Amino acid sequence: LPLPEEHPGKADFLRWAHSLPPTKEEPIFVSPLHLPRIESGLSLPMAPLPESFVLFLPLNPEVGWLIGEKSAGTRFWKEDLDLARQMASAAAAQLEKIRYLEEYLRESLEREKAQQMSEWKSLLVAEVAHDLRSPLNTILWKLKNLQYALANGKGNLQDSTREIQKQVLRLQNLIQSLLSFSSIEKGQLQLRLVPLNLKLTIQEVLDILQEAIIRKRLSVEQHIPETLTVRGDSVFLQEIFLNILHNAVKFSPEGKRIRITAERTSPQGKPTVEIRVEDQAGGMTPEQIAQAFEPFKKEAEKKSARGFHLGLYIVKQFTELLNGKVEISSRPGHGTTVFLFLPAG
Hints:
elongated, 48% helix, alpha+beta
Protein backbone atom coordinates (compact mmCIF):
# COMPACT_ATOMS: atom_id res chain seq x y z
CA LEU A 1 0.00 0.00 0.00
CA PRO A 2 -0.81 2.52 -1.26
CA LEU A 3 -1.89 1.06 -4.60
CA PRO A 4 -1.79 3.07 -7.82
CA GLU A 5 -4.77 5.41 -8.07
CA GLU A 6 -5.93 3.74 -11.29
CA HIS A 7 -6.23 0.28 -9.70
CA PRO A 8 -9.92 -0.76 -10.03
CA GLY A 9 -10.19 -2.32 -6.56
CA LYS A 10 -8.31 0.29 -4.56
CA ALA A 11 -11.14 2.30 -2.99
CA ASP A 12 -13.12 -0.74 -1.71
CA PHE A 13 -9.99 -2.50 -0.52
CA LEU A 14 -8.65 0.49 1.42
CA ARG A 15 -12.01 1.00 3.13
CA TRP A 16 -11.89 -2.61 4.23
CA ALA A 17 -8.20 -2.48 5.24
CA HIS A 18 -8.68 0.58 7.45
CA SER A 19 -11.62 -1.05 9.22
CA LEU A 20 -9.54 -4.02 10.44
CA PRO A 21 -9.63 -4.57 14.22
CA PRO A 22 -6.24 -4.42 16.00
CA THR A 23 -4.48 -7.76 16.55
CA LYS A 24 -1.55 -8.86 18.71
CA GLU A 25 0.13 -10.78 15.90
CA GLU A 26 0.49 -10.08 12.23
CA PRO A 27 -2.33 -11.89 10.41
CA ILE A 28 -2.16 -12.92 6.78
CA PHE A 29 -5.24 -12.50 4.63
CA VAL A 30 -5.64 -14.46 1.42
CA SER A 31 -7.65 -13.65 -1.68
CA PRO A 32 -10.44 -16.18 -2.34
CA LEU A 33 -9.47 -16.07 -6.02
CA HIS A 34 -6.01 -17.44 -5.24
CA LEU A 35 -6.69 -20.17 -2.65
CA PRO A 36 -5.14 -22.84 -4.94
CA ARG A 37 -1.80 -20.99 -4.59
CA ILE A 38 -1.74 -21.59 -0.79
CA GLU A 39 -0.70 -24.83 0.93
CA SER A 40 -3.83 -26.86 1.62
CA GLY A 41 -4.99 -27.35 5.19
CA LEU A 42 -3.98 -23.87 6.40
CA SER A 43 -6.62 -21.72 8.06
CA LEU A 44 -6.30 -18.16 6.83
CA PRO A 45 -8.89 -15.37 6.85
CA MET A 46 -10.00 -14.29 3.40
CA ALA A 47 -10.15 -10.70 2.20
CA PRO A 48 -11.37 -8.92 -0.95
CA LEU A 49 -7.89 -8.15 -2.28
CA PRO A 50 -7.36 -6.55 -5.66
CA GLU A 51 -7.39 -9.46 -8.12
CA SER A 52 -3.68 -9.31 -9.00
CA PHE A 53 -2.62 -9.96 -5.37
CA VAL A 54 -2.57 -13.20 -3.38
CA LEU A 55 -1.77 -12.15 0.21
CA PHE A 56 -2.17 -9.08 2.43
CA LEU A 57 -0.27 -8.40 5.70
CA PRO A 58 -1.36 -5.27 7.61
CA LEU A 59 1.60 -3.58 9.33
CA ASN A 60 -0.35 -0.78 11.01
CA PRO A 61 -3.69 0.99 10.40
CA GLU A 62 -2.20 2.95 7.48
CA VAL A 63 0.32 0.59 5.88
CA GLY A 64 0.25 -2.98 4.67
CA TRP A 65 2.03 -5.40 2.34
CA LEU A 66 0.32 -6.74 -0.75
CA ILE A 67 2.00 -9.84 -2.17
CA GLY A 68 1.48 -11.16 -5.68
CA GLU A 69 2.40 -14.49 -7.24
CA LYS A 70 5.81 -16.06 -6.77
CA SER A 71 8.12 -15.50 -9.69
CA ALA A 72 8.49 -19.29 -9.97
CA GLY A 73 4.73 -19.73 -10.06
CA THR A 74 4.75 -22.18 -7.11
CA ARG A 75 2.52 -22.26 -4.02
CA PHE A 76 2.98 -20.37 -0.77
CA TRP A 77 3.90 -22.93 1.89
CA LYS A 78 3.56 -22.58 5.65
CA GLU A 79 7.28 -21.77 5.93
CA ASP A 80 6.78 -18.92 3.44
CA LEU A 81 3.91 -17.53 5.48
CA ASP A 82 5.83 -17.80 8.77
CA LEU A 83 8.75 -15.92 7.21
CA ALA A 84 6.35 -13.28 5.88
CA ARG A 85 4.89 -12.82 9.38
CA GLN A 86 8.36 -12.40 10.89
CA MET A 87 9.33 -9.85 8.24
CA ALA A 88 6.04 -7.99 8.75
CA SER A 89 6.59 -7.90 12.51
CA ALA A 90 10.09 -6.46 12.00
CA ALA A 91 8.82 -3.92 9.48
CA ALA A 92 5.97 -2.86 11.80
CA ALA A 93 8.46 -2.32 14.63
CA GLN A 94 10.64 -0.16 12.38
CA LEU A 95 7.62 1.88 11.28
CA GLU A 96 6.74 2.48 14.91
CA LYS A 97 10.31 3.65 15.60
CA ILE A 98 10.12 5.99 12.61
CA ARG A 99 6.81 7.39 13.91
CA TYR A 100 8.28 8.07 17.36
CA LEU A 101 11.37 9.63 15.77
CA GLU A 102 9.24 11.92 13.60
CA GLU A 103 7.24 13.01 16.64
CA TYR A 104 10.43 13.63 18.61
CA LEU A 105 11.96 15.68 15.78
CA ARG A 106 8.76 17.66 15.32
CA GLU A 107 8.56 18.47 19.02
CA SER A 108 12.27 19.36 19.09
CA LEU A 109 11.89 21.70 16.13
CA GLU A 110 8.86 23.34 17.73
CA ARG A 111 10.78 23.85 20.99
CA GLU A 112 13.77 25.21 19.08
CA LYS A 113 11.59 27.60 17.09
CA ALA A 114 9.84 28.76 20.26
CA GLN A 115 13.21 29.39 21.91
CA GLN A 116 14.46 31.22 18.82
CA MET A 117 11.34 33.40 18.74
CA SER A 118 11.83 34.22 22.41
CA GLU A 119 15.44 35.24 21.74
CA TRP A 120 14.32 37.30 18.74
CA LYS A 121 11.73 39.11 20.85
CA SER A 122 14.37 39.99 23.47
CA LEU A 123 16.75 41.25 20.78
CA LEU A 124 13.93 43.12 19.09
CA VAL A 125 13.07 45.07 22.24
CA ALA A 126 16.72 46.09 22.73
CA GLU A 127 17.28 46.94 19.05
CA VAL A 128 14.02 48.88 18.72
CA ALA A 129 14.94 50.97 21.75
CA HIS A 130 18.33 51.80 20.23
CA ASP A 131 17.41 52.20 16.56
CA LEU A 132 14.34 54.35 17.21
CA ARG A 133 15.93 56.47 19.95
CA SER A 134 18.92 57.51 17.85
CA PRO A 135 17.05 59.17 14.93
CA LEU A 136 14.45 60.63 17.31
CA ASN A 137 17.23 62.30 19.33
CA THR A 138 18.70 63.68 16.10
CA ILE A 139 15.31 65.01 14.99
CA LEU A 140 14.75 66.63 18.39
CA TRP A 141 18.19 68.30 18.27
CA LYS A 142 17.67 69.58 14.74
CA LEU A 143 14.21 70.88 15.60
CA LYS A 144 15.74 72.89 18.46
CA ASN A 145 18.34 74.30 16.04
CA LEU A 146 15.58 75.06 13.56
CA GLN A 147 13.52 76.78 16.24
CA TYR A 148 16.53 78.92 17.24
CA ALA A 149 17.25 79.77 13.60
CA LEU A 150 13.66 80.85 12.97
CA ALA A 151 13.58 82.95 16.15
CA ASN A 152 16.94 84.67 15.59
CA GLY A 153 17.33 84.60 11.83
CA LYS A 154 20.57 82.67 12.12
CA GLY A 155 21.67 79.21 11.10
CA ASN A 156 21.22 77.10 7.99
CA LEU A 157 17.54 76.14 7.66
CA GLN A 158 18.18 73.91 4.66
CA ASP A 159 20.73 71.74 6.51
CA SER A 160 18.38 71.25 9.45
CA THR A 161 15.35 70.34 7.33
CA ARG A 162 17.48 67.98 5.20
CA GLU A 163 18.76 66.16 8.29
CA ILE A 164 15.25 65.89 9.73
CA GLN A 165 14.02 64.43 6.45
CA LYS A 166 16.91 61.93 6.47
CA GLN A 167 16.08 60.74 9.97
CA VAL A 168 12.35 60.45 9.19
CA LEU A 169 13.21 58.26 6.18
CA ARG A 170 15.43 56.17 8.44
CA LEU A 171 12.51 55.64 10.82
CA GLN A 172 10.29 54.70 7.89
CA ASN A 173 12.82 52.09 6.76
CA LEU A 174 13.01 50.61 10.26
CA ILE A 175 9.24 50.39 10.52
CA GLN A 176 8.95 48.86 7.03
CA SER A 177 11.53 46.22 7.95
CA LEU A 178 9.57 45.30 11.07
CA LEU A 179 6.29 45.11 9.13
CA SER A 180 7.87 42.89 6.47
CA PHE A 181 9.41 40.63 9.10
CA SER A 182 6.06 40.32 10.87
CA SER A 183 4.27 39.45 7.62
CA ILE A 184 6.82 36.76 6.79
CA GLU A 185 6.60 35.14 10.23
CA LYS A 186 2.79 35.16 10.18
CA GLY A 187 2.58 33.86 6.61
CA GLN A 188 0.32 36.76 5.63
CA LEU A 189 1.99 37.63 2.33
CA GLN A 190 -0.12 37.75 -0.82
CA LEU A 191 1.51 37.69 -4.23
CA ARG A 192 0.41 39.14 -7.54
CA LEU A 193 2.81 37.71 -10.13
CA VAL A 194 3.01 39.63 -13.41
CA PRO A 195 5.76 40.42 -15.96
CA LEU A 196 7.75 43.47 -14.75
CA ASN A 197 10.33 45.55 -16.56
CA LEU A 198 13.54 45.03 -14.61
CA LYS A 199 15.32 48.23 -15.61
CA LEU A 200 12.36 50.43 -14.63
CA THR A 201 11.96 48.62 -11.29
CA ILE A 202 15.63 49.10 -10.39
CA GLN A 203 15.57 52.73 -11.50
CA GLU A 204 12.63 53.41 -9.15
CA VAL A 205 14.73 52.05 -6.27
CA LEU A 206 17.77 54.09 -7.30
CA ASP A 207 15.60 57.22 -7.32
CA ILE A 208 14.69 56.53 -3.69
CA LEU A 209 18.39 56.21 -2.81
CA GLN A 210 19.52 59.08 -5.02
CA GLU A 211 20.29 61.54 -2.22
CA ALA A 212 22.59 59.09 -0.42
CA ILE A 213 24.27 58.15 -3.73
CA ILE A 214 25.00 61.80 -4.52
CA ARG A 215 26.14 62.59 -0.97
CA LYS A 216 28.72 59.76 -1.07
CA ARG A 217 29.71 60.59 -4.68
CA LEU A 218 29.03 56.99 -5.78
CA SER A 219 28.84 56.01 -9.43
CA VAL A 220 26.13 53.50 -10.37
CA GLU A 221 26.65 51.53 -13.58
CA GLN A 222 23.69 49.71 -15.10
CA HIS A 223 23.97 47.02 -17.76
CA ILE A 224 20.36 45.90 -18.08
CA PRO A 225 18.58 45.29 -21.41
CA GLU A 226 15.72 47.75 -21.89
CA THR A 227 13.11 45.04 -22.57
CA LEU A 228 14.26 42.46 -20.00
CA THR A 229 11.36 41.37 -17.77
CA VAL A 230 10.98 39.17 -14.71
CA ARG A 231 7.88 37.50 -13.35
CA GLY A 232 7.23 38.88 -9.90
CA ASP A 233 5.21 41.04 -7.57
CA SER A 234 6.00 44.76 -7.92
CA VAL A 235 5.92 45.47 -4.17
CA PHE A 236 8.06 42.46 -3.27
CA LEU A 237 10.51 43.06 -6.10
CA GLN A 238 11.03 46.70 -5.10
CA GLU A 239 11.57 45.63 -1.48
CA ILE A 240 14.20 43.09 -2.60
CA PHE A 241 16.21 45.61 -4.62
CA LEU A 242 15.76 48.36 -2.04
CA ASN A 243 17.40 46.20 0.64
CA ILE A 244 20.23 45.01 -1.62
CA LEU A 245 21.04 48.44 -3.04
CA HIS A 246 20.62 50.17 0.32
CA ASN A 247 23.33 47.88 1.72
CA ALA A 248 25.59 48.57 -1.26
CA VAL A 249 25.19 52.34 -0.82
CA LYS A 250 25.45 52.21 2.97
CA PHE A 251 28.69 50.23 3.13
CA SER A 252 30.44 51.67 0.06
CA PRO A 253 33.19 54.21 0.80
CA GLU A 254 32.88 57.62 -0.84
CA GLY A 255 33.68 57.80 -4.53
CA LYS A 256 33.35 54.06 -5.18
CA ARG A 257 31.31 52.22 -7.81
CA ILE A 258 28.18 50.07 -7.72
CA ARG A 259 27.62 47.91 -10.79
CA ILE A 260 24.27 46.30 -11.69
CA THR A 261 24.10 43.76 -14.51
CA ALA A 262 21.35 41.45 -15.70
CA GLU A 263 20.94 38.85 -18.43
CA ARG A 264 18.49 36.18 -19.46
CA THR A 265 19.68 32.58 -19.05
CA SER A 266 18.11 29.11 -19.28
CA PRO A 267 19.54 26.79 -16.61
CA GLN A 268 17.96 23.34 -16.95
CA GLY A 269 15.67 24.73 -19.62
CA LYS A 270 13.96 27.23 -17.28
CA PRO A 271 13.90 30.87 -18.53
CA THR A 272 15.69 32.80 -15.77
CA VAL A 273 17.02 36.32 -15.25
CA GLU A 274 20.38 36.49 -13.47
CA ILE A 275 21.00 39.82 -11.72
CA ARG A 276 24.29 40.84 -10.11
CA VAL A 277 24.80 43.80 -7.78
CA GLU A 278 28.53 44.43 -7.19
CA ASP A 279 29.95 46.94 -4.75
CA GLN A 280 33.47 48.00 -3.74
CA ALA A 281 32.84 47.99 0.01
CA GLY A 282 34.90 46.17 2.62
CA GLY A 283 33.59 42.70 1.78
CA MET A 284 32.41 39.93 4.09
CA THR A 285 34.05 37.02 5.85
CA PRO A 286 32.78 33.44 5.28
CA GLU A 287 31.23 33.56 8.77
CA GLN A 288 29.36 36.76 7.92
CA ILE A 289 28.11 35.28 4.64
CA ALA A 290 26.88 32.17 6.46
CA GLN A 291 24.77 34.33 8.80
CA ALA A 292 23.83 37.04 6.30
CA PHE A 293 20.28 35.79 5.71
CA GLU A 294 19.43 35.20 9.39
CA PRO A 295 17.47 37.90 11.23
CA PHE A 296 18.82 39.71 14.29
CA LYS A 297 22.35 38.33 13.79
CA LYS A 298 24.81 40.79 15.27
CA GLU A 299 28.32 41.06 13.95
CA ALA A 300 31.19 42.18 16.13
CA GLU A 301 30.19 44.75 18.70
CA LYS A 302 30.78 47.69 16.43
CA LYS A 303 28.59 50.74 16.26
CA SER A 304 28.14 50.16 12.54
CA ALA A 305 26.81 46.69 13.26
CA ARG A 306 23.85 47.95 15.27
CA GLY A 307 20.44 47.34 13.74
CA PHE A 308 17.78 44.74 13.08
CA HIS A 309 19.76 42.93 10.35
CA LEU A 310 16.50 42.12 8.60
CA GLY A 311 17.42 43.37 5.12
CA LEU A 312 18.96 40.23 3.63
CA TYR A 313 16.55 38.00 5.58
CA ILE A 314 13.68 39.82 3.85
CA VAL A 315 15.51 39.57 0.50
CA LYS A 316 15.85 35.79 0.85
CA GLN A 317 12.26 35.21 1.97
CA PHE A 318 10.75 37.43 -0.72
CA THR A 319 13.00 35.98 -3.45
CA GLU A 320 11.99 32.42 -2.56
CA LEU A 321 8.32 33.44 -2.58
CA LEU A 322 8.89 34.65 -6.16
CA ASN A 323 10.33 31.18 -7.00
CA GLY A 324 13.86 32.56 -7.20
CA LYS A 325 17.04 32.31 -5.17
CA VAL A 326 19.74 34.64 -3.85
CA GLU A 327 23.45 34.04 -3.28
CA ILE A 328 26.38 36.11 -2.00
CA SER A 329 29.99 36.10 -3.13
CA SER A 330 32.45 38.19 -1.13
CA ARG A 331 35.94 38.45 0.30
CA PRO A 332 37.24 40.93 2.85
CA GLY A 333 38.78 43.87 1.02
CA HIS A 334 37.35 42.85 -2.37
CA GLY A 335 33.74 44.00 -2.21
CA THR A 336 30.55 41.98 -2.34
CA THR A 337 28.41 40.63 -5.18
CA VAL A 338 24.78 39.67 -4.60
CA PHE A 339 23.36 37.26 -7.19
CA LEU A 340 19.61 37.10 -7.79
CA PHE A 341 18.01 34.42 -9.95
CA LEU A 342 14.37 35.21 -10.81
CA PRO A 343 11.90 33.65 -13.26
CA ALA A 344 11.89 35.45 -16.58
CA GLY A 345 8.73 37.36 -17.42
